[in-house]
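Following up on my earlier thread - several people asked me to post the actual chain instead of describing it. Fair enough. Here it is, all 319 residues.
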Amino acid sequence: MPEIIRVERFVPGAVREAYHFLGCNFRKRVSLQDSVRPASPPLRLAGRFCNTILVTLRGRLKQVGRASESTLTCSRRKNVRRFSWFAVSLVLCAGSLCAQTNGSLPKFGLGLKVSTLGAGIEAATAVSRKSNLRVGFNYFTYSDTFTKDGIAYDGKLNLQSFEVHYDQYLIGGFHISPGVLLYDDNRGMASAAVPSAQSFTLGGTTYYSSASSPVVGNGTLGFQYKTAPELLIGFGNLLPRSKRHFGFNFEFGAAYQGSPSVALNLTGSACTSPGVNCQSIASTPAIQSNVTAQQTKINGDLKVFKYYPVVSLAFGYKF
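Reply from S.P.:
Thanks for posting it. Predicted structure:
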């Protein structure tokens, strides 16, 4: 019968802390001499870094967990799930990093990248001679003003995601990389305004903003799924199978986030002519119906983005 052992007896740093955090036992045929080979200085440094993050996450989750179920808000629950996903992904990353005992394979690489998902950092470890496991985090914000159908918007786009990829190399550096956005928080928000006496269109109907109560409001943009499958094709390798330490990786593909959803909320008064027959948007069913129609029109224009295009270029260093 295989002996039941505590995994922290056989793995250093980050993985030990991670498994202790998760309270797991590890069942394996192993003797006391089968300990992991000492890591190189760069790997020990990376392990300490992952370990520090995991300890921080552990403390944060314990703090959140003290709240009773009755007082735990929906937002707090979402944060718990996000921290949990992040912690588990770090465990997978650290496990792959520390468990590599085949000296012929690269053990660890770090890269910086720019992509349509934002600027990011990613880590990679070799799984086999022709495959890698990569994890990465992307972040970017962008603000702009624009006008659509007479309504002026002051918008901000937030791109934030955490992703995992499995790179399968086919010929040389050419590879296909199925993956998943484990945490997809790409979203947008905007304030809306129509200057007094200026015309604007809602659902095909033209109105004029009231001078005494100008039209103002806000809009939000979100995607259907917070976890999105992703498929990329590319050329390059953050872990070159040679003596080179520097590598690059160019990829393109798409992530299926589901159909974008825009919510438009307007207040103030709209007039059929400048200063004539002005009615409150909030309390007039006909105008509210046209706001809904305008919202539907915008959602239709953005429907193509349910397949979010991904193009990325990364440069990395193999330790």
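Residues 1-37, 64-73, 94-101 have pLDDT under 50 and may be disordered. That should answer part of your original question.
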